[in-house]
Design a protein that fits this description.
globular; 19 helices; Rossmann fold; alpha/beta; Helicase, Ruva Protein, domain 3; 4 domains
Length: 466
């Protein structure tokens, strides 16, 4: 499928509820800073908001808690009853810690106070809500019907399983948004390929795509490479250097292995996301930048945050639109078609012709754990093309010993993380079966409905239904 074959994506529609015209205009401006093609509807009363929710494709609600026809948590209860699937951000000049906690328990996506919040706080809240709206309707792999064929980002890319079709649909949506994207997955799963697809499919495709591996340079060199430096800033700085954020212009900057970024660089990245500006090493003034950030990591960034190795505020701003790529061992049905495509490509590149992959060979390939994921499979097929004689059928004995002997090894016990995830999912399902709504199930578990949805998504379970 060609690069221009896109899934039809809805325009983001945000409903702002605020009787204060000036405040509503400020919120609208913050929304447009995130999604410049968004549609924003402003209403002063709850009644008008409920009518709008009933008749339009609202993807997100931003509301005050003091309205002419309703007040406080009753506003949130009414919104939730009308459209429980639409994320809500509270932006209010009134309220207390108790109200904030109660609002979050009702499933509010974020809670911002007008008088104490910096503009960046409002932008961050709206940005996160916009990310949730972009993900609306795609909370589960099964949401992609078989009749919808997502565009493949590369001829060698295969998406036969529901989880990978889900990934491609998220890539299509991410391409049309301006929010930061965080690609999570093990080494070799194709994160850079998907980052390039996000850039190539969006409105920035005519601008530059620049790539930087955050683990490939020392702290000082990485800071200089990303943000630039002025002449004389350090030994060897013989001339000014603009930096990759400036070089990217209105394009995309792909930060691979973002989990490797030193804390000093993380601070500067946070400034880029908050204020859209960078300060070169040794410079006296900042420089405005417009590049969109796509980041990738093979670590679990939440665990890095908990361990104090990654800034929590930066994580939340990067993970507005998270896309998790499953490892190859979780999509065994795609191993054979991937191997076949790699075989065809390497036969053409090396000008060699094998007799193809025997069925028993494909079976062994599908049973292998592939710790190196798609990249490991690609390298193995390339090796086979170079070592097997012309026109010779590729049999199991041609495979590398680690793959060939896989069938003889006893099945490994599931790792602790997998077992804990299964237990957690079983408990959640038990509560969902026993209680009438997801809200009730979330309360029984001591979490918000939003947190429950997040857990279901991470565990690969459905978020549809009550």
């Amino acid at each position: 499928m060609g690069m221009d074959s896109l899934v039809s994506l809805p325009r983001l529609h945000v409903l702002v509820i605020d009787p204060d015209i000036e405040e509503a205009a400020r919120v609208r401006q913050a929304i447009m800073a995130v999604e410049d093609d968004a549609r924003v509807t402003v209403v002063p009363r709850l009644g008008a908001a409920l009518a709008a929710l009933d008749g339009a494709g609202i993807g997100c609600v931003v509301t005050e808690l003091d309205l002419p026809d309703c007040h406080g948590l009753d506003i949130l209860r009414s919104l939730h009853a009308a459209r429980p699937d639409v994320p809500v951000v509270v932006v209010t000049g009134a309220g207390s810690e108790e109200i904030a906690v109660a609002a979050m328990k009702l499933g509010v996506a974020d809670y911002v106070r007008k008088r104490t919040a910096a503009p960046a706080d409002l932008s961050s809240a709206v940005r996160s809500a916009a990310g949730r709206a972009v993900l609306s309707g795609l909370d589960e792999p099964a949401a992609a019907p078989a009749s919808v064929a997502p565009a493949l980002p590369h001829p060698d890319f295969v998406a036969l399983t529901p989880r990978m079709r889900h990934v491609l649909l998220l890539v299509e949506r991410a391409a049309q948004s301006r929010v930061p994207v965080l690609l999570e997955g093990e080494t070799g799963t194709g994160k850079e390929l998907l980052a390039r697809a996000i850039h190539a499919r969006g409105p920035r495709r005519q601008a530059s795509l620049v790539v930087q591996n955050c683990g490939a340079l020392s702290e000082s060199l990485l800071e200089s490479e990303l943000f630039g430096h002025v002449r004389g800033a350090f030994t060897g700085a013989e001339r000014d250097r603009a930096g990759l954020f400036v070089d990217a212009g209105a394009g995309t900057i792909f930060l691979d292995e973002i989990g490797e970024a030193p804390l000093s660089v993380q601070v500067k990245l946070l400034r880029v996301l908050q204020h859209g500006e960078v300060k070169a090493v040794g410079a006296d003034r900042t420089h405005a930048v417009r590049a969109r950030i796509v980041a990738a990591t093979n670590r679990t960034l939440q665990a890095e945050v908990d361990a104090g190795r990654f800034r929590r505020d930066l994580y939340y701003r990067l993970a507005v639109f998270p896309i998790r790529i499953p490892p190859l061992r979780h999509r065994a049905a795609e191993v054979a078609p991937l191997a076949t495509r790699f075989l065809e490509r390497f036969e053409a590149e090396e000008r060699r012709k094998t007799g193809g992959l025997a069925p028993e060979t494909l079976d062994l390939l599908a049973r292998h754990g592939w710790p190196g994921n798609v990249r490991e499979l690609e390298h193995e097929v390339h090796r086979l093309v170079l070592t097997v004689a012309n026109d010779q059928r590729i049999r199991p004995h041609h495979l590398a010993p680690a793959i060939r002997d896989a069938a003889r090894r006893p099945a490994q016990a599931a790792p602790l993380a997998t077992l804990l995830a299964r237990i957690e999912l079983a408990l959640i399902r038990q509560r969902l079966d026993a209680l009438p709504t997801k809200t009730a199930a979330a309360r029984s578990l001591g979490i918000t409905r939003e947190a429950l949805y997040g857990k279901l998504r991470r565990l690969g379970a459905s978020t549809r239904g009550r």
